[in-house]
Amino acid sequence: MNLNELLVDCKKLDPISYELATAIYHKQNDLIDQVNHKMASLENIDALIGGNPEYMMNDNHRHHLLFMVNVFNLNFFEMMVRTVAWVYSSYSSHGFNFDYFIYELKTWIEVYENEFEPEFVKPVTDVYRWLLEHHEDFCQISREENSTNKPKTDEWFVIKQEFLGALLAGDHRTCVKLASASISNSDDMEKFYLQVIKEAMYEIGYFWQQAKITTAQEHLASAIVTRVMTSINLLDIPRNSKKGKAIVTASTNEYHEIGSWIFADLLDQDGWDVDYLGANTPADPVISLAKKIKPVFVAISVTMPFNLFFLKNFIKLLRSDAELCNLKLMVDGKVFQEFPDLWKEIGADGCANDAVSGRNLARNWWKECSLA
Ligand code: B12
User: Fold this and answer.
1) pTM surpassing 0.70?
2) pLDDT above 80 (res 42)
3) Which atom of ligand 1 is nearest to the CA of 337?
């Protein structure tokens, strides 16, 4: 089956009860430890993980469990199919043997059945059996993905290429200079953010996924981008007319902050009074801040599917607080772009395709608010 066929076929999987998803969540540490231990004691483990350090495999097990709890919690098997395809592609590019996944999936089944009554956990082990049944399909999708090149062109393409080259060379001075030389008004700033920084970072991600650059280079590129964005914040660009207050942040455990930072800057430029809280923000302080400053809306960014769980908890807290019943919630980030209806299912008031559409949605909310 190809990816589209898998996306259809996975709908036949039985839904997982909230009780079972929660039971797995509560036992996560035991389950992960057991899988780590069993996998590490395999005789051929070095060959399976392609000589990579053991912590890389253990990271995968930790992310896997948190992610699967989200899949079970939302009964969102399409998200599982897309992410498993990504995991096959990414880890195989980093040298993992495709057979590693067979061992891993079988080990998860064994560990679930050790830890729970096999009949109780059957809906979950059936999902793993379905994944095993389609192992060859995921290998094929991954081989195709790894051999595709994605050329792109646009009017800021030349600047983006230069910026990307400097990012890869770790040359932060050239990156900062490119920003100040290219930006003289709000429109340039928007283009620099979306057509230079965003595009360059997506390419960095693609190179990393293909194991063409190291994790250190990916971190270096992110750190340079944060320096560049700080330098852009220092440019004196005239702002649009004054609007209301907004809180922008990335969800708990979400370390990807560049997208939400871009959105916060575009809002600021548009005249909003923005409290930008950055990466990995716990729910309680956001709620307390919202009560204190009474913003028009809160915007939360989620990139990694395994962080949806935290967002769901945040929404639960928010919606159960009578003081915040008029507060609007906007969500976006990579995971919402992959699954366009997810924001409705999760209970947000709006979602945008990118930071510019987010700003437009905020303008509409501001209009509604001013008319009320
Ligand atoms: C930089 C980076 C990191 C950095 C982040 C540093 C930082 N300070 O932000 C670090 C090193 C921390 C990191 C960590 C990880 N990363 Co990473 N990372 C990236 C990378 C290369 C770029 C992200 C980025 O900045 N993009 C540019 C911004 C501008 O784009 P954006 O976030 O999509 O935002 C735009 C819109 O989405 C929107 N937007 C975003 N949020 C919001 C919110 C609102 C309200 C609105 C309106 C709009 C909006 O506005 C932006 C402009 O339009 C991506 C590649 C990619 N394709 O994104 C991988 C990527 C996202 N990471 C990935 C992975 C796997 C990880 C790790 C799990 C790696 C690991 N093994 O530990 C961890 C997870 C950490 C965690 N718990 O969050 C994968 C995710 C794959 C998947 N399954 O979806 C990617 C896609 C890489 C890849 N190609 O494989 N990462």
Assistant:
1) yes
2) yes
3) 37
- CA-nearest of 180, 32, 186, 102 to 194 is 186
Please tell me the distance from the alpha carbon of residue 88 to that of residue 309, in angstroms, as a whole number. Answer: 23
CA 256–ligand 1 middle distance (angstroms): 5
Query: CB–CB of 248/274 below 8 Å?
Result: yes
User: 303 C-alpha vs ligand 1 centroid, how far in Å?
Assistant: 6
**pLDDT tens-place string over residues 258-272:** 999 999 999 999 999
> pLDDT by residue (tens digit) across 220-233?
999 999 999 999 99
Nearest ligand 1 atom to alpha carbon 362: 47
250 lines ligand 1 (CB under 6 A): no
Q: Hey, which of 256, 307, 335 would you mutate to test ligand 1's pocket, going by the most ligand atoms within 8 Å of its Cβ?
A: 256
- Please enumerate in sequence order all residues whose Cβ is within 8 A of that of 116, keeping only pairs 6 or more positions apart, or say none: 23, 27
Ligand 1 pocket, residue 204 CB under 6 Å: yes
What the chain holds in terms of domains, given with CATH numbers, is 3-146 (1.10.490), 157-233 (1.10.1240.10), 245-371 (3.40.50.280)
